[in-house]
């Protein structure tokens, strides 16, 4: 038979061989799905591992400003009103080449234009990732 002992804030449980012969009756809760980059509210999930630490690095504030501007932009083309935010982010990143220097590809046409690079990368978003944005727009149009 198992025994318990309290040591300070810790509870120590000694289990016997007989305790381990009985199948566990513990039921774990269902795992919650990973929220992804865009939360169901349409907000940006800055803790998403898909950002690779960009939101918290030395240029994290500039990255969050630029990414937020692009995400919430209603300009056509999307993000065209965010040039200054992306320029500020790019200037910050140029101060930390060891962290932010990407591979030098000669065929990379948009390396000088951060808006073009982000616009091209957003083309690869799947329908699921874009759904919260559409949801936010639908809510906004109902309020009008």
TrEMBL record:
Chain intervals with Acidic residues compositional bias: 105-115
GO terms (molecular function) for this protein are: protein-disulfide reductase activity
Q: Where is the composition biased (Basic and acidic residues)?
A: 128-144
Name the Gene Ontology biological process terms: protein import into mitochondrial intermembrane space
Q: Could you confirm whether the keyword Cell cycle appears in this record?
A: no
Keywords for this protein: Disulfide bond, Mitochondrion, Oxidoreductase, Protein transport, Redox-active center, Translocation, Transport
* Highest taxon above the source species: Eukaryota
Any one annotated GO CC term? mitochondrial intermembrane space
Q: Which residues form the CHCH domain?
A: 59-95
Which sequence ranges are marked TM in the entry? none
Where it mainly occurs, coarsely classed, is: mitochondrion
Q: Which is a Pfam family this sequence falls into? A: CHCH
User: Where is the protein found, in the record's own terms?
Assistant: Mitochondrion
* Region annotated Disordered, chain positions: 98-144
Q: Which InterPro entries match?
A: CHCH (IPR010625), CHCHD4 (IPR039289)
Family annotation (PANTHER family): COILED-COIL-HELIX-COILED-COIL-HELIX DOMAIN CONTAINING 4 (PTHR21622)
What protein am I looking at? CHCH domain-containing protein
- The organism named in the record is Gryllus longicercus
